[in-house]
Amino acid sequence: MTEQVTDNPARSRYELDVDGKTVFANYRRVGSTLQIPYVEAPPSLRGTGAAGRLMRGVMETARSEGMKVVPICSYAAAWIRRHPEFHDLLA
Fold first, then answer.
1. Where is the N-acetyltransferase domain (predicted)?
2. Phi first, then psi: what are they for 60, rounded to 5°?
3. I need a surface site. Which of 20, 21, 22, 30 has the fewest CB within 10 A?
4. Distance, CA of 58 to CA of 53 (rounded, Å)
5. 1 located within any domain
6. Contact 12/27 with Cβ under 8 angstroms?
């Protein structure tokens, strides 16, 4: 099973489909900065690592697009603190 984070610009969010359920991170683009105000996983996916896999994909996308990240959501901020390999992306 290959999971891929996709951009849904119509809803201003990155999404990850896991067994027909969607984990998502809302975003706002301000110039070359990606603000992440909210991350949500359906209750049945909480504790499975799905939101972490989503965040990894979001951060890899930000890196590939040359963007800096502002984690407004407490989950996103905590996830980034635990992953120093992405600290260079913090705005």
1. 6-91
2. -65, -40
3. 20
4. 9
5. no
6. yes
**Any idea what the CATH number is for the domain that residue 50 is in?**
3.40.630.30
- Do residues 40 and 74 make contact, with C-beta atoms less than 8 angstroms apart? no
Q: Which phi and psi (to 5°) does residue 13 adopt?
A: -155, 150
Question: How many domains is the chain partitioned into structurally?
Answer: 1
Q: How far apart are CA 7 and CA 67, in angstroms?
A: 14
Q: What gap in Å lies between CA 69 and CA 51, rounded to an integer?
A: 17
Check if the beta carbon of residue 69 is closer than 8 Å to that of residue 62: yes
Residue 22 CB partners (closer than 8 Å, separation 6+):
15, 16, 42
Q: What is the pLDDT along the chain (91 residues), one digit of tens a residue?
A: 458 999 999 999 999 999 999 999 999 999 999 999 999 999 999 999 999 999 999 999 999 999 999 999 999 999 999 999 999 999 9
To the question of pTM greater than 0.90 for the whole model, the response is yes
The answer to whether position 82 is within a domain reads yes
